[in-house]
């Protein structure tokens, strides 16, 4: 049976957990070969095992790399091309939340750390993957921004700066590379229940984080957290040829929360 990703190769960063893992599972179920990148070797192995469970014939490459390190990024792109010959889709997704604090207390080291992974890491991925896609004359990229990249959330200086930057990079690269048959989009997830959001709620209330979560989502029009697999469906759509004229824009996936006054 032919599916949307039969004979397609998709590279995913932050593939060892949360949204990266959910996208890997969705794409594998649609026939993609996968190059999975993460700093966590154990996370990668877990994702690869889950992929094999739902789609046993899937070709999976696992590469440990830090997306903020340029030689790591150059190497993960090179190894993916060596293994598969091309890159059809790129989910440029790895990120961290960072500590929550007022601007005056945020700390310049923490700021640099969050920006280095969440913004520089996305830029470096674009730098090396877009060169490959330009030679191919085709490709789709999805960057992970956040509602924190299109709205003010507070207590997130580094995250806000980085994610607004991801929206800017998406616009910039999308308008540059459209002429080569490439689309570059971003997603802006609201609160999706992953280990990152669990960590964030624990920063609000370590002992009663589940109650903090219930209060948090009571403001959402749909009154619930998003599920990683819902993001996986959006990412697969944007990385597929079904989305071939959607470019340079950022799509919220947040139950409508960012539209609410
Ligand atoms: P997660 O913590 O479950 O997964 C993130 C993965 O990225 C982890 O496996 C981690 O090891 C990896 N990673 C972290 N730093 C890395 C680095 N330097 N190099 C390579 N890999 C690295 O989090 P998640 O919720 O799946 O988040 C994925 C992306 O989605 C992030 O960019 C995050 O900012 C964004 N996001 C998440 C939410 C949400 O509600 N979960 C909302 C908005 C945006």
UniProtKB/TrEMBL annotation:
Q: Which UniProt keywords apply?
A: Cell wall, Oxidoreductase, Secreted
Q: Where in the cell is it found?
A: Secreted, Cell wall
One Pfam family of this chain: adh_short_C2
Provide the reaction this enzyme catalyses. a (3R)-hydroxyacyl-[ACP] + NADP(+) = a 3-oxoacyl-[ACP] + NADPH + H(+)
Gene3D superfamilies linked to this entry: NAD(P)-binding Rossmann-like Domain
Family matches, as InterPro entries: KR_dom, NAD(P)-bd_dom_sf, SDR, SDR_fam
Primary localization: secreted
Q: Which SMART domains match?
A: PKS_KR
Molecular function via GO: 3-oxoacyl-[acyl-carrier-protein] reductase (NADPH) activity
- Tell me where in this chain the Ketoreductase domain is found: 8-190
Keyword Oxidoreductase appears in the UniProt entry: yes
Family from the record? Belongs to the short-chain dehydrogenases/reductases (SDR) family.
Stated name of the protein: 3-oxoacyl-[acyl-carrier-protein] reductase MabA
Query: Source species, please?
Result: Gordonia aquimaris
């Amino acid at each position: 049976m032919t599916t949307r990703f039969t004979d397609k190769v998709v590279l995913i960063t932050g593939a060892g957990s949360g949204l990266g893992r959910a996208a890997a599972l969705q794409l594998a179920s649609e026939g993609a070969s996968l190059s999975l990148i993460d700093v966590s070797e154990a996370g990668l192995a877990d994702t690869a095992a889950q992929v094999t469970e739902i789609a046993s014939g899937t070709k999976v490459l696992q590469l440990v790399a830090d997306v903020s390190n340029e030689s790591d990024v150059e190497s993960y792109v090179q190894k993916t091309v060596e293994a598969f010959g091309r890159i059809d889709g790129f989910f440029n997704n790895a990120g961290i939340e960072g500590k929550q604090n007022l601007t005056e207390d945020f700390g310049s080291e923490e700021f640099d750390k969050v920006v280095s992974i969440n913004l520089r890491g996305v830029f470096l991925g674009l730098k090396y993957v877009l060169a490959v896609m330009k030679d191919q004359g085709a490709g789709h990229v999805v960057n992970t921004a956040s509602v924190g990249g299109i709205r003010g959330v507070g207590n997130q200086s580094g995250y806000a700066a980085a994610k607004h930057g991801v929206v800017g990079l998406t616009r910039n690269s999308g308008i540059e590379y459209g002429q080569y048959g490439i689309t570059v989009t971003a997603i802006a997830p609201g609160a999706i229940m992953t280990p990152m959001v669990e960590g964030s709620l624990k920063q609000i209330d370590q002992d009663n984080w589940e109650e903090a979560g219930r209060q948090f989502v009571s403001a959402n029009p749909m009154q619930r957290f998003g599920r990683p697999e819902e993001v996986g469906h959006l990412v697969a759509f944007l990385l597929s040829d079904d989305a071939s004229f959607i470019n340079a824009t950022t799509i919220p996936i947040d139950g409508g929360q960012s539209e609410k006054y």
